[in-house]
Fold this sequence. Notes:
This is LPS sulfotransferase NodH. This protein is α/β, with parallel strands linked by helices. It has one domain (21-257): Rossmann fold (3-Layer(aba) Sandwich), CATH 3.40.50. The protein is 43% helix and 12% strand. The protein contains twelve helices and five strands. It has helices at 33-41, 58-61, 64-69, 72-77, 79-88, 107-114, 129-142, 152-159, 166-186, 196-201, 204-212, 241-250; strands at residues 21-27, 46-51, 96-102, 119-125, 191-195. It has a five-stranded parallel β-sheet, with helices on both faces. The protein is globular and about 55 Å long.
Amino acid sequence: MAIESNLDVVADDDRPECGHRAFVLLSTGRSGTANLLSQLGKTPGVRAYSDIFHTVNPQVHIPPDMLAELPLSLRDAEPVAYAYKALAHNPGQAAVVGFKIWRSQQQEVCARLLRDPDVVKIVLERRNKLAVYASARKAVKTGVYNSFPAGEAVDAYAADLVRFDTDYFKRYCKAQHGTFAWYRKRVQGKVLFVGCLQVADGSAYPRCTDILGVAPPDPPPPGRRRLNDGDILDRFHPDDHKAIMDCLTDSGRRRWRFEK
């Protein structure tokens, strides 16, 4: 895999060889990326970075050794160059290096990486948009974004109920569908499309290691447990259940009541 750290043009025969492959995980928030990236990061030969373009508390998501070499000022001033420097950042000499990102974080970087044939793309979509919507609202309300060992915070997340706004949900769905259509329209080179349920049931992981050219360990790394299960209506205030079902019926998406 050829990666140019100081990048002006992506496709360039004169790029220095870094000796490893690069990948990017493209999605939107609350879609299972933390789960999949956690598994990939525990795979021998893979160095998987998190949200290096996260806009809130980026120092929490970027490892200290990368922050020391690649300051946030570079990320803000030259985001494309920063992305390629991050893909080249490989102190452990892993066979594969990558990170996750989505369009709303840095559209220019996403567009550049999508059309770079030398970067493997994994596109992860949570197709049940009611589940995405509920998860996003619960995370913001509770401050719990990922499933760690059972405790009061996780229990509070599962028990918390959020409200439903029909007009906002319709706009939310339109934005979600638009983002993934945008990915599909621009992608070039080697790409793998996977779904959130495939991450949850473990079937996405071997497909990812296959496209990245690494051998999955036996047994595979454990994934993170889901924060909610069952009927998605149970994640909303009971007063909103009728409005939710009316909205799903009108759009032909009654199946979104359950994520299966």
